User: Fold this.
Amino acid sequence: MKWTKQRLNNLFFFLGCAACVIMLFTFDVSFVELWEHICHAGYWLIPIIGIWIVVYGLNAFAWRAIIFGNVGHEEIANRKLSSRKFFWRIYRLTITGYALNYATPVGGLGGEPYRIMELSKDIDNQHATSSVILYAMMHFFAHFWFWFISIFIYLALVLIGDMPITTAIAIVLGIIVVFCLVAFYIFSRGYRHGLVVYTLGILGKIPGLKGWSRRFRGRHAEALRNIDCQIAALYSQDTRAFYTSLVLEYSSRMVQSLEVMFMLLLFGIDCGGGFGGLLLTYLHSVLIVSFTTLFANLIGFLPMQIGVQEGGFVLSIAAMGLSAALGIFVSIICRVREILWIAIGMALMKIKE
Assistant:
């Protein structure tokens, strides 16, 4: 078993390294132009890259809250894991998991199997699986809240005359609201009744997967029911852990928006300066990130979302009345940041504790 996990670790490692290489060679600009953009960013690269230490920290705390709510503080303590050491493991797996997600299609789910495999070294496999699934659900759930609340941020800016409103924009905003409300209903059912057995049932209706789904459910029926029970238990029994995780995940999106704000400031866009100007610039950044992530997740089946994120940034920044050139710059610098953090994630994968 140990050898199998080591082989899987190596597979994930080479997958992530391959992703770095592919991303380097899929830029829409030459390496000369890429270097010019990096030089233009200059010392602003430090806060742009460094802000993700905080983003991943919030993600790790959100996941930690779910694990403690799912497994229990006493169970973690019984395994003689110090709080600091356990958080470091969660933080490391958070970074590595997201790094692996960039290498895979279908919404970027490549990091989840790795997280389950590594977390099962500290807790039993069923709790490790349910904790990872719960965190993945929370990650997407917070996305929908981010998009939903961004609608009201946009409308607030419309009221003060900072943003335009047309019939077309109103229709798009209405569609997003309905989309989010439907998602909230689906997630509420998943949190109340579990999601694993239901999802496997849906997969069983896909041609070619029916036999596999039936066999898998037959072999692991009890374990799957236990995992669904653990998912439902967190929502119904430990609401504090649930909402703590949600707030932390949502906060990580708001902190992530500072990355775009730094790049707007780099181009001298500060909405007049002062506290009011910086606040408006930040809210514009939130809307840019919100639209871009919505666009990227709707077409999330592409590996590393090649071309999707770039297009999302260009469209969202243009919609804010800014130049397409700025959108290209933001997308390129964000791609550079992704490559650097993938490399960091791969390095952390090989660190022995």
